[in-house]
Amino acid sequence: MKRPFAQLVGTGHYTPSKILDNAYFEKIFDTSDEWIRERSGIRERRIAEKHETLAYMGTASCRQVLDDAGLTPLDVDGIVVGTASPDRFLPSTACDIQAELGAHNAAAFDVAAACSGFLYAISAAEGMIASGTARNVLVIGGDRLSTIADYTDRTTSVLFGDGAGATLVQPAENGERGVLATYLKTDGRLGELLCRPGGGGNHPPDEQLLKDRTYFIRMAGREVFKNAVRSMADACDQALQQAGMSGEDVDLLIPHQANIRIIEATAKHAKIPMDKVFVNVDRYGNTSAGSIPIALDEAVRDGVIKPGSLVLLVAFGGGFTWASVLVRW
Ligand code: UT7
User: Fold this and answer.
1) What residue segments make up the domains of the chain, in order of their start?
2) Strand locations in the chain (E)
3) For the CA atoms of 99, 109, 185, 41, what is the dihedral angle to 10 degrees?
4) What pLDDT is recorded for position 1?
5) From the CA of 37, how far away is ligand 1's center (Å)?
6) Which residues of 79-114 are buried (b: 16+ CB within 10 A; e: fewer)?
7) % helix / strand / coil in the chain, to the nearest 5?
8) Rounded to the nearest whole angstrom, what is the distance from the C-alpha of residue 191 to the centroid of ligand 1?
9) Strand, helix or coil at 283?
10) Less Cβ crowding at N or C end of the chain, within 10 Å?
11) Catalytic: 104?
12) Any atom of ligand 1 within 6 Å of the Cβ of 151
């Protein structure tokens, strides 16, 4: 089938209003605002209050998308959520969003691909459109990493924040606007470098889990960094190659917001100047699957993305997973 057969219509996002700045971590760790800003580019991150569940943030994002698209929840026939921090293991967060939204006609499921989750979810939605299974698929990316970050570990907790965003995937209409390329890649051999060792079927909750803190995220930062730079470069190349385009054609690069140094290396590799790169890692930190859809919505609402813009979305995360989606807006 010749692309584009799916397009993205409407955007939305939700981030909690509670801000945790770097000064907070100076009080609890041997760290400094300067170290965090220089090594990661992060100034502050948003932290969810108790009522701001992932389903709450995702539902708020979806309402904005449906408003943009002029649809009601009953028009939705698919809901796909990319996340690594679901509100609970059963049912999926997508089911909870379906119920909260009142989207009673939608099939709903989660996709677990860590920070690449939103792009994997777009690809799943594209498949539903191509197979004729659905015509209006809400795709949500979001994480509430504050619930699985280890606030006794200065090497990881300073990086993470909470938030979600969404878009709607529909059949393409005029053959120009829509998803021009998607690329998904995984290397499970590197899984241990970024993982939550306990809490699942291999280590069900017990007292030991709380003592050894294996419930929380563990990351070998330096190794993850190196792989992120390599994988994000690969993801840029593959999507552009599929579409027969180059970095010079791109109007806006939206990379996963994990670290400003990874973002700059990705842009340099793809030959995209930094004034065509969307950056909000300074304000939100790493929101995992939330990072790209939050940035996408901000870019659309700020007028940075206009009808006809060529937008390259690129992600990397635990698994390892990496991915790219090239869209004509
Ligand atoms: O979402 C996708 C997955 N995540 C990522 O993409 C994150 C990838 N990794 C990174 O962003 C970076 O590796 C970090 C920001 C996590 C760390 O930056 P780095 O330049 O790679 O630092 P490092 O891990 O090599 O650590 C340098 C030093 C170490 O001290 P020694 O061993 O040199 O004495 C760390 O212990 O910095 C120390 N350090 C800190 N110092 C002050 C680590 N965390 C902190 C901290 N404050 N918060």
Assistant:
1) 6-175, 179-328
2) 6-14, 19-21, 44-46, 78-82, 107-111, 137-144, 162-171, 178-186, 194-195, 218-219, 252-255, 310-317, 321-328
3) 20
4) 55
5) 11
6) bbbbbbbbbeeeebbbbbbbebbebeebbbbbbbbb
7) 40, 25, 35
8) 18
9) helix
10) N
11) no
12) no
Average pLDDT of the residues of the chain: 97
Contact between 137 and 128 (Cβ < 8 Å): yes
- pLDDT tens figures, 172-183: 997 889 999 999
Domain 6-175: top CATH class: alpha beta
> For 158-173, what is each residue's pLDDT tens digit?
999 999 999 999 999 9
> In 3D, which of 82, 84, 65, 81 has the Cα closest to residue 73?
65
The pLDDT of residue 174:
78
Residues 6+ apart with CB under 8 A from 225: 259, 261, 262
Residues of the chain with pLDDT under 50: none
Catalytic residue among 22, 62, 136, 256: 256
Q: For residue range 222-233, list pLDDT tens digits in order.
A: 999 999 999 999
Q: Are 7 and 173 in contact (CB under 8 A)?
A: yes
Tell me 165's DSSP state. E
pLDDT of residue 3: 86
Read off the pTM.
Answer: 0.98
Q: Please, are residues 162 and 149 in contact by the beta-carbon 8 Å criterion?
A: no
158 CA: nearest ligand 1 atom: 48
Sign of CA dihedral 210, 82, 95, 67: positive
Q: Is 256 a catalytic residue?
A: yes
3-state secondary structure of 169: strand
Q: Give me the torsion for CA of 241, 245, 248, 254, rounded to 10°.
A: -70
Query: 255 with 82: CB under 8 angstroms?
Result: no
Given the candidates 3.40.47.10, 3.30.559.10, 2.60.120.560, 3.30.230.70, the CATH classification of the domain at 179-328 is: 3.40.47.10
